[in-house]
TrEMBL record:
<dbReference type="InterPro" id="IPR042099">
    <property type="entry name" value="ANL_N_sf"/>
</dbReference>
<dbReference type="InterPro" id="IPR017523">
    <property type="entry name" value="Rv3268"/>
</dbReference>
<protein>
    <submittedName>
        <fullName>TIGR03089 family protein</fullName>
    </submittedName>
</protein>
């Protein structure tokens, strides 16, 4: 049984400490041809920038909510982990009560949230050419913030994801049964739940090969190239 750390930020910090330089999350999009590889340190920088945007830029923290309406992607991982590091709860569906919304241009809807960000999830983290009215560009805004986040108090029973606490979500993630230290290839379309594609591997100390629009004909060769030990 995997020992569960009490909060998601602690789980992520442990994953980065374990091997800061090796790939922690490798993202493929077989529709666009995009491949992005992030070490623990690099992903940690994006997470810190996101947390700083939320805390220093927007003044958010414990008790606040971020609506994260994004598909599985390396930017989504950075955003969710940044949200949790900031002590903010993430909601994947509700925008009505959210304090901030982060979404794609295709999913922008009417919301009462005072702060709204869009990202195109483009290769090389390129900014959007056209912004939806009332939205800022996440990629441009987050880059203005520092790579180090001092941290926020986060407790195991704080809300984390869709009304569940850090403790509840991490217990669920640990029960997914991913072997410790695995390198996991994940079909993003088949596993859209962040507990499955992001948190379960992190709890297990595994590294992630996340594949959007996965071409089934490429799975075997990719698994060999990426030294994958488990395919989901």
């Amino acid at each position: 049984m995997v020992e569960v750390q009490p909060t998601i930020p602690q789980v992520f910090a442990a994953a980065v400490r374990n091997d800061p330089a090796s790939p922690l999350l490798t993202f493929y999009d077989d529709a666009s041809g995009d491949r992005t590889e992030l070490s623990g340190t690099t992903l940690g920088n994006w997470v810190s920038k996101t947390a700083n945007l939320l805390v220093d830029g927007l003044g958010l923290g414990n008790g606040d909510t971020a609506a994260v309406q994004l598909p599985p992607h390396w930017q989504t991982a950075a955003i969710l982990l940044g949200v949790w590091s900031a002590g903010v709860a993430a909601e994947t569906g509700d925008t009505e009560s959210a304090d901030v919304v982060l979404t794609t241009p295709e999913k922008t809807t009417t919301t009462k949230a005072p702060d709204r960000y869009a990202t195109g999830l483009l290769p090389f983290a390129m900014p959007l050419r056209e912004l939806p009215a009332g939205f800022a560009d996440y990629v441009l805004e987050v880059r203005q913030h520092g790579d180090y986040f001092a941290g926020q108090p986060v407790a195991p029973d704080d809300k984390a994801l869709d009304g569940r606490t850090h403790r509840e979500v991490l217990t669920e993630a640990a029960n997914r049964g991913i072997p410790a230290g695995a390198r996991v290839l994940i079909d993003a379309n088949a596993h859209p739940d962040p507990v499955e594609w992001l948190l379960a591997p992190l709890v297990a100390g595994a590294s992630i090969v996340l594949c959007a629009n996965l071409d089934a004909a490429k799975v075997a060769a990719r698994a060999e190239t990426e030294k994958v030990t488990l395919v989901l």
